[in-house]
Amino acid sequence: MSGAKPIAVVTGGAGFIGSHMVDLLLANGYRVRILDNLQGGHLSNLAHLQNEPDVHFEQGDIRDLAAESLLFRDVQHVYHFAGIGDIVPSMEQPIDYMATNVQGTVRVLEAARSGGRHTLQRFVYAASSSCYGLAATPTLEDFPIQPQYPYALSKNLGEQVVLHWRQVYDMPVNSLRIFNAYGPRVRTTGAYGAVFGVFFRQKLAGKPYTVVGDGTQTRDFIYVTDVARAFYMVACSDREGEIYNVGANNPQSVLRLVELLGGEVIFVPKRPGEPDCTWAETAKINREIGWYPQVDFPTGVRTMLQDIARWNDAPLWDPESIAKATESWFKYLGKER
User: Fold this and answer.
1) What SS3 class is residue 66?
2) Residue 258: enclosing H or E segment and its boundaries?
3) What pLDDT sits at residue 2?
4) How far is CA 153 from CA 168, 276, 329, in A?
5) Pick from 122, 243, 250, 297: CA 20 to 30 A from residue 74's CA?
6) Within 10 Å of residue 262's Cβ, how many Cβ atoms?
7) Residue 335: pLDDT band with limits 50, 70, 90
8) According to the model, what pLDDT value does residue 103 have?
9) Confidence check: pLDDT of 191 > 70
């Protein structure tokens, strides 16, 4: 490996977005060090890089990360994707979410501060648009923060920690609030998979799509390579201490996804605490960074369908199993407030 190459650390680099971040960094001449505990990530996401000399993988949990970790020595860029997601588990295991997404972020910051004391150029945090809660749309970065469940709260607290480390320790940080990311390597297993994993598995089985509510709700789906490119462009910019929305600024309905996939539908009850629309106003990142999404929704879905066999091992959901899995959701979020 050439010592002249800059070094980037990607936490959660075996995960969905993180593994695409690794690909982009390698294409731009970086040596990439990956930290992942393989709870949400998969080595299969990095299999195409197994003979890549500029990749170093370390299995570990950010909750156990030492400030003196050699993984962060002389690092230029840190991309912090590691964390745990999903709504229902966060209500059932809030301690784990706070320990990982908040205290784990503190540990990553301290490792970056120590190892990159003379070299760190940018630390970019993967925040979540769930911090906005049931927000007005299109949603700007300065809209009220109103998390509806512990996952959203933990990710927003992580963002506050990152910005606080800039205030106190002068760390060069930015935070990107990701809207509805999709694309190759999106999680295919687990009890709370994203809509693509649910629908693709149902399509493979010839079963109807379980559409929540009436399907007219819209989501600002953003293709994963566009997300990775946003992180890289923000890291390479002269902007610091900023928060940016990362979305397509073009919401699509769930019924539009069904139309692109083709097939029958069956409707399941609308979930409390979920917005009818997510819509990222991206004028700030467009203007200050020059980033715009490049992959439109039909193209992204069509690309994913080329690899639909990957979803064979995903759970096959039906209305009964969905109702069982979301009991806690309705219990905690369905009450009057």
Assistant:
1) coil
2) helix 254-261
3) 46
4) 22, 20, 16
5) 243
6) 9
7) confident
8) 98
9) no
Binned at pLDDT 50, 70 and 90, residue 190 comes out as low
Task: Tell me the H-state helices in 133-222.
Answer: 150-169, 195-205
pLDDT in tens, 99-135: 999 999 999 999 999 999 999 999 999 999 999 999 9
What are the angstrom distances between the C-alpha of 328 and each of 53, 172, 224? 46, 39, 30
Which among 30, 79, 89, 81 is positioned nearest to 56, based on CA atoms? 30
Length of the chain counted residue by residue: 337
Q: Which of 97, 132, 151, 209 is catalytic?
A: 151
List the structure tokens of 87.
């709504």
Q: How far does the chain reach from its first CA to its final CA, in angstroms?
A: 57
* Helix, coil or strand: residue 281: coil
Confirm if 122 and 77 have CB atoms less than 8 A apart. yes
Confidence check: pLDDT of 189 > 80: no
Instruction: Confirm if 137 and 91 have CB atoms less than 8 A apart.
Output: no
182 is catalytic: no
Q: Which two tokens stand for residue 237?
A: 């910019």
Q: How far apart are CA 59 and CA 57, in angstroms?
A: 7
Q: Locate 266 and state its tokens.
A: 């069956």
Question: How is residue 277 annotated by DSSP?
Answer: B
Domains of the chain (ranges, CATH numbers): 7-180+223-246 (3.40.50.720), 182-220+250-279+295-331 (3.90.25.10)
Nearest of 55, 43, 164 to residue 110 by alpha carbon: 164
Q: Is the peptide bond before 138 cis (omega within 30 degrees of 0)?
A: yes
What is the average per-residue pLDDT within 150-170?
98
CB 297 within 8 A of CB 240: no
